[in-house]
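hey all, quick one before standup. I had two proteins in the batch that finished overnight and I want to keep them in one place so we stop losing track of which output belongs to which input. First protein below, input sequence then structure tokens straight from the run.
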Amino acid sequence: MIKKVLFLRAYYGITIHSDAHGELGEHLNTRDVFPDLTLLTAATIFKENPDYEVEFIDAVLEDKMLPDELLKKLEGKKYDMIILKTTAPTIRSDIELLKRIKMLIPEAEIKIGGHASKIIKKWIDENVDEINQVIEEPIDEFALHYLNPNSENLGINDMPTPDYTLVNYKRYLDDEKRVRLTLQASRGCPMACSYCPYKLYYEKVEFRDVDRMVEDVKKLVELGAEVIQFRDQYFTSDKARIMEFCKKIIEQNIKVQLICETRLSSLDEELITMLHKAGVFLICFGVESGDAEILKTYNSVKGKPERMKEIIAYANGLGIITMAFYIVGFPEETWEKVENTYKFADYLDSSYAIFNEYEDCKFDIDEKLLTPELFTAFGNTTTVDYPSILNSDERKYLVWLYSILYTMRISYEGAYHYNYEIVRDNKKTIRKMQPFAYDLDKLSSCVREMWESGEHEK
């Protein structure tokens, strides 16, 4: 008998990039819509098994389907299994949503996945009877192992190309309204930066065969993808492999714009040139801090500053956009040390700089605090602070200040719009939403009222 499986990503009124931050997810101050690659890949794995019928609901794409609408849509439906991908900003509401879904479809086996649910697994197991399983591994890995219980060593190379036709994928648009889809050619990272959440969730390093990478790209281009973003944590960790990939993309004349995230120290002029010829137009990389002592403390030495500057300048000279990520407010960071980070960003001169507040992602805290309340509803920080020289308000101020200052190098208007206007409006929206994290009907009404009044853009 064929079993019906529903894969679900909910929507609560704000933009969440659910693949980001080591699969903890994060709220974005943008209207961009990113796919959830691991959830989509898991759905594809089930779809390719003849014993299962798959439905995928990405509520973000369904005209921003709010929870009350989603629950109404599910009335009268029958599923054997429902798998929801949660995030740290939405886990309170996701748990409540699954409780409501279980009332509607009591026969369904309810599963929740994502890094945030893994962190509070014990609490969910003890307090939420409606959830049958907390998936502790990435959801696509779970799907492989669930359907192949007797096979060992299955990994990224055994996964199919994600089937984007399961959703209305042409709504996955970037800020220039281009169809932007995502792929993963490797997972895990050989580095050991102690602040990184990816290391805690992706426990081993795996690589997809180059020929499979090329086929993945071709299939997405055939669907109409204009931009493909590789979600690898360290795309160019093996130079020879990526050189081969670029060569095949060029030889087969595959025309698409590509984005990758990597480590500056793995790049040189030869590799950057090949990436550019293959269609890479944006390279993202972590710099984190401008203070050498901070980097050493967190096992994240990045290389010689002058060489980093040369590599960025070379990429910019080819027309590649460079995007550097920085962390503000390491526990040991003084005002002087954090100022070094902005000065270093100014020195490196990447096209864009993204400043984020430090978060302790190890969650090595009292187990009694590992509840949904650990995560700020619809926000990007936890509710539990840690010993730090700079307090939370100071860290948030510096993130805002540095974002404004860096964007002003490019555009005064852009600095105001992206780093003040959108951030201001989103903060106001989130403040109104937070009291209703557990009350989905009131939350839906709150967001809808803001849409109708023009306070919040749909």
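OK second protein, same deal, sequence then tokens:
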Amino acid sequence: MSVRIGHGFDAHRLVDGRPFVLGGVHVPFERGPLGHSDADVLAHALSDALLGACALGDLGKHFPDTDERWKGADSMRLLGACVDMVRELGYEPVNVDATVVVQAPKLAPHLERIRASVAAVLRIETDAVSVKAKTSEGMGYTGDGTGIAAYAVACLTRS
């Protein structure tokens, strides 16, 4: 059996009037991440982790923000496409672990729905999806309320 591990990261500015989407779940908040797509930082970090595990580059290589086809794109669909890419190479996601760093909104009430949404796209059990929410105690762009970041690790196997 072959095991591969990938790491992903994403960050976006939070602005007024944008929907706050995380792991495909709409979280009520007055601001949301600014980006070419729906700017779902969790989906982007997970995508990069999957692609990285198979040395396939990053999300921008496959879905560049200079391509109008991806303007406003549902990032969970992009995540699904990344899952398909690694599966084409014979790899299967085993588990993922992610940390989202943002001062507000509070994410704890939404984490179970987010985990279930991610698990459905990855086609793995929910107990193989870990999503944690952290603040940065008022420090930096994630702490002053101007931004959000996500870090993710993915483990893939090929038998």
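Flagging for whoever picks this up: The helical segments are 41-53, 59-62, 75-88, 111-122, 140-143. The CA atoms of residues 46 and 152 lie 5 Å apart.
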